[in-house]
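Thanks for the sequence, V.! I ran LRRNT domain-containing protein right away. Repeating your input here for the record:
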Amino acid sequence: MLHPRDVGIILLLLVAECGAISQMGAQVGDCPSRCHCEEDGMLQRVDCSDLGLTGIPANLSVFTSYLDLSMNNLTLLSSGALSNLHFLEELRLAGNDLTHIPKGAFYGLFNLKVL
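Predicted structure:
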């Protein structure tokens, strides 16, 4: 038989685990407004092309594997703006007015294969 203290600890762990799962679910399913997103297993493909964007959307899922920002009005790619996208394999930036890409702009993109 479990001691009441043990039951309390188990309940606390269950609540914490449920909170972590729900937070992860929000990160997986988030899609920036006006963009089109498709689930690819656990990963996400995000198409934000031709939307007149002047900046990189802030609420990109950490599980984004494909990101199309082509044909927008991006002029600056901030250092570290994409650093949390560790699963990103393909980044499309064609058709923007990027004049300078700072050192470290692609820091953390360890899986990037197509730019």
